[in-house]
Write a structure and sequence with these properties.
Elements: E1 6-12, H1 16-24, H2 26-32, E2 38-41, E3 48-55, E4 58-69, E5 77-84, E6 92-104, E7 107-118, H3 121-152
Antiparallel strand pairs: 1-7, 2-3, 3-4, 4-5, 5-6, 6-7
Length: about 190
């Protein structure tokens, strides 16, 4: 992950199995994650999926591949993914990232780190100066929306718009391994 990679962390008062299910099952994931309007597994291709996102009135389509470690020595889990969009309207050309799940006394510490490359040359790099902070905010807001769903039972669609807040999430990695991509990411093909 680069110095500009996005990072979000929160602690959710739930058990590891529940958090894993709500983040790994596409029909649940797309309900809480502001970044995705649709996530569809590709039949016959384990780990592959198609996604759609809506941004500023545009629908952008892309593809991805993910893999997860269900058993880690520390009792946690990791999920890694690669994603890409051939859509010429997409600022994001391709990227990769991870989710790390670490049990704590208070629940599960849920962390993501991801980065991406842009298209459109100099204009794309300039547009990313505005988009990247917004994308980080959307990720943090979505993590808090998931936290509220799992802790209160209120479906994400019924939460008031201002109920989740990105400000409840940590946005920079702690010293150590938090900002380091897991090795499982190296095993994934390109999306």
């Amino acid at each position: 992950m680069s110095r500009r990679a996005l990072y979000v962390e929160t602690v959710i008062r739930t058990d590891l199995e529940t958090l894993w299910r709500y983040t790994q099952e596409p029909d649940l994931h797309e309900r809480w994650d502001l970044r995705f309007a649709r996530i569809e597994p590709v039949a016959g291709s384990p780990g592959r999926f198609h996604y759609a996102t809506r941004f500023l009135g545009l629908t952008i389509n892309g593809t991805g591949i993910h893999a997860g470690e269900s058993e880690r020595p520390d009792g946690g889990r990791t999920s890694a993914l690669r994603f890409a969009s051939a859509d010429p309207m997409s600022l994001i050309r391709s990227g990769s990232g991870y989710w790390r799940y670490t049990p704590t006394d208070d629940g599960v510490r849920f962390v993501t780190g991801f980065d991406y490359t842009t298209r459109w040359g100099v204009f794309g790099r300039f547009a990313d100066l505005l988009f990247r902070p917004l994308f980080g905010w959307m990720t943090a807001w979505s993590f808090d929306r998931l936290r509220l769903w799992l802790e209160t039972g209120a479906p994400p669609e019924e939460l008031p718009l201002l109920s989740p807040t990105a400000g409840r999430c940590r946005r920079s990695p702690r010293p150590g391994k938090d900002g380091v991509a897991p090795r499982v990411l190296d095993t994934l093909e390109q999306a």
